[in-house]
From TrEMBL:
Keyword annotations of the record: Membrane, Transmembrane, Transmembrane helix
Dynamin N-terminal domain: residues covered: 53-102, 110-183
Keyword Transmembrane part of the UniProt annotation: yes
Full protein name: Dynamin N-terminal domain-containing protein
PANTHER family per UniProt: SARCALUMENIN, TRANSMEMBRANE GTPASE FZO
Organism: Candidatus Scalindua brodae
């Protein structure tokens, strides 16, 4: 285990890092990022362990052979094909042992004194035909504190190595030692050319030249197992051992222990801040989009309401035509000449009224047509509105959600069709206008005519009787003549008066019916429109409310992240200044 820091400053810094990692772990747990939380937990557990020296590189670059050469014994499998399929953590132990940690890790012990404050980590090779090997290595690299990157002299600095180095150095900023292996295959001149090639290309990528040490792990292993001192010196492994076991003193290792997790956190926090900022931007965009859609709904409601008023004009025209036909009928048929003619023609008066007033363009039929037209209009527009909402949810919102988030995909439109209760209510309400029944109105007119005719006959009969009586007795009686004249005049005027009275009552009744019907029509249709728009509005606004809540939560996360990031950068500044 790593010794306690010798200086109070180092002690404080280590404790600060431990506390920071604990708070970072809680933060990532709170936001549901299980992957980062696991990595932070691993680094927190690792903080008290010996320094992790990770040996990385492409398969067949000689990584396992190099570790065997360090130990002087073949404790790891090596060969020309991918031989390491797990992360192997080599630590100090009195005996050689191996224990499985999980499916991707094993821990080995070996009695090498240098392993008391250093853990050598052998990794599966990158650019292997076995893709999982590279994923295992990349999934562990965040735990590295020093990386010994092995490249082969027969194919140095390949494209896959460049990609891996960008992850290693560019993303996680790990301390790196470049090892050019298999120099036994090249001349000294070729070695120098290869080293220059590596330095130039590395500088082009990262802006500085790496430390490159050439060696032959094959010769080093043979020398260690055979005791050949000359071959050992030629292999150049002692130069690498001097660097990792001697030049990296205790203070350097402590600095790496502190800085490695901090640099990891800075990188993660910066990336997370970009992600969260994008989320806020997406939320703002979605909220604005919802508000614009709600404005479209409001405009659509106004358009539909104004259009429904068109049907009010149509119903008023139906009632106006009805009054005109009644006026025409009364003027033409309800008079003495027409009544006497009809009486002698024996034609039923109420049938004539029903035929002429209600026979063509029956107002009840016309009103039913208007109601059906209005229902069709509302149905068509309701379907359009639900299609708009459906398309909006899918195109404007669902595309910005995760592909497996089924909650935002609406396959139903909840369209209010013609069989709804609202539609039935309107039709039933329209049928209540029984005052417009042709037979009833014909009977009423006939009663007016009949009573007027009877009164006319009686009064005219009295007037004629008076005149005949006076002439029989040859008694000129001015008063009698006057009375007879008055009775005759009343007889002639009663029918027009009754006709006028009926007309006025009918017109008032029609106007009242027209007003009630129009008010009903507008009220009921506005309720249907409001209900549909309210349902759609509620559905859409639920997304807006969700985005509001999400934005508030993300803003809280950004605030917490900023605090953690500032703590991390402050610890880096303190560590670098000491």
């Amino acid at each position: 285990m790593l010794e306690v820091a010798k200086s109070p400053e180092k002690q404080d810094n280590i404790q600060y890092v431990v506390d920071l990692l604990d708070d970072a772990k809680k933060f990532f747990y709170r936001i549901g990022d299980v992957g980062i939380e696991k990595k932070v937990s691993e680094m927190a557990e690792q903080i008290s362990e010996p320094l992790y020296l990770v040996v990385a590189g492409e398969y067949n670059s000689g990584k396992s052979t190099f570790v065997n050469a360090l130990c002087g014994k073949r404790i790891l499998r090596d060969g020309p094909t991918p031989s390491t399929n797990k992360i192997t953590l080599l630590t100090y132990g009195d005996d050689v042992s191996s224990d499985e940690v999980d499916d991707h890790q094993c821990r080995m012990t070996y009695p090498l004194e240098a392993l008391k404050d250093l853990t050598i980590v052998d990794t599966p090779g990158t650019n292997s035909i076995i893709a999982e090997h590279q994923l295992i290595t990349e999934g562990f690299i965040h735990r590295s504190e020093v990386v010994l990157f092995v490249t082969s002299a027969d194919h140095p600095f390949t494209e896959s190595e460049r990609v891996f180095l960008q992850l290693l150095k560019g993303k996680w900023d790990r301390k790196l030692l470049f090892v050019l292996n298999k120099i036994d295959l090249k001349t000294e001149e070729e070695q120098n050319e290869i080293v220059s090639f590596i330095e130039k290309n590395f500088y082009r990528l990262f802006g500085f030249e790496p430390k490159v040490i050439s060696m032959s792990s094959k010769d080093a292993f043979l020398a260690r197992t055979s005791g050949d001192a000359e071959l050992l010196q030629k292999s150049n492994i002692e130069k690498i051992e001097q660097f990792i076991f001697e030049k990296m003193d205790y203070e350097t290792k402590m600095d790496l222990k502190i800085l490695s997790p901090l640099k990891y956190l800075v990188n993660v926090f910066d990336g997370m801040n970009d992600v969260l900022t994008d989320k806020v931007s997406h939320c703002n965009s979605e909220i604005k989009s919802v508000e614009m859609f709600e404005k479209r709904l409001s405009n659509k409601k106004q358009d539909m309401t104004e259009y429904i008023n068109k049907y009010k004009t149509e119903t008023q025209s139906v009632f106006a035509r009805l009054k005109e036909k009644v006026d025409s009928f009364l003027n033409y048929h309800v008079n003495i000449r027409a009544i006497i003619t009809m009486k002698f023609a024996r034609e039923k008066f109420d049938d004539k009224f029903k035929r002429e007033v209600f026979g063509v363009a029956n107002p009840r039929t016309e009103l039913e047509r208007i109601v059906n037209d209005a229902l069709d209009y509302v149905d068509r527009n309701n379907e359009v509105l639900w299609d708009m909402a459906h398309d909006y949810i899918e195109s404007e919102i669902a595309l910005q959600r995760k592909p497996d988030d089924d909650s935002v995909v609406r396959k139903d439109r909840h369209f209010t069709n013609r069989g709804s209760d609202k539609h039935i209510n309107i039709r039933e309400y329209a049928k209540q206008f029984q005052e417009l029944d042709g037979e009833l109105e014909g009977a009423k007119v006939y009663r007016v005519v009949q009573s007027g005719f009877i009164n006319f006959v009686i009064l005219e009969g009295l007037a004629i009787g008076i005149v005949i009586g006076l002439s029989t007795f040859f008694i000129p009686n001015t008063l009698g003549i006057i009375v007879a004249s008055i009775l005759a005049g009343i007889g002639f005027s009663l029918l027009p008066l009754k006709r006028k009275k009926y007309r006025n009552e009918f017109m008032q009744r029609v106007d009242a019916i027209s007003e009630r019907f129009n008010n009903m029509l507008l009220f009921e249709f506005e309720k249907i429109i409001d209900r549909v728009l309210e349902d759609i509005g509620n559905r859409i606004s639920s997304y807006r409310d969700t985005r509001w809540s999400e934005r508030e939560e993300v803003n809280r996360q950004i605030t917490d992240l900023k605090v953690l990031s500032e703590r991390t950068k402050d610890l880096i500044r303190k560590s670098c200044s000491q």
